[in-house]
Amino acid sequence: MPRPTSIADPRIRLVRRLRPGLRLAALADALTVCSPREAPALATELVELAVTPPRKDPPGWARIPPIEGIFDAVHRAGVVRADRALAALARHWADLPDELRGPAAAVGAGRWGDALNPDTPPLCLAELARDTDDVSLAPALVGALGSDGAGALAIDTLADFARRAHDDLARARAGGTTAGGWRPVAIALIHAAADYARHNCREALAGVLLVLEGPGRRLLPRREHDTLLSIVRDPGHPAAKGIRGELRWSRSPVVRARAWSWLADDAFAAASLDRLSRAPTIADHDAVLASSHLVLNPRRRRRLRMIDLRPSTHRAPDKPAAIDLPEGAGVPTVAQYPRLGAPARRGLGRMLAAASVSPELRRALLAPAVADPDAHARFASARVLDTADLADFAFDADPLVARHAVLRRSRPSVAVSGEARARLAHELGKLIRSPHPSVRALAAQDAHRLDPWDGGSSASRLAARFALARDADAFIAEVRTRLLGADEDASLGAIQLARRLGLVGRLRDELVLLALDASRPDRVVATAVGALGSDDAESSRDAIARAIDHGDTRVRANAVEALAKRTRRLPDLAAGDPRAYSVLVEHKDDAEHRVRANAIVGLLRPRRARALAERKPSPRLFEPAATDALRSMLGDARPMHRLAGLWAAERLLPAASLGDSAAAVLAEVGRLRADEDPRVRRRADRCRARLVAARVEEPS
Amino acid sequence: MIADAVPYWLQRADPVPEPPPGAGFDWAPLFGWLLVLAVVVGVGAWVWWRRQAPASERAFRALANRLLFGPRARATLRRLAKAHGRATPGSLILSPSAFEHALNKLRECDPESDDATIAERLAARLSRV
Question: Which residues of B make CB contacts under 8 Å with A?
Answer without folding.
Answer: 54-56, 58-60, 62-63, 66-67, 84, 86-88, 90-91, 93-98, 101, 129
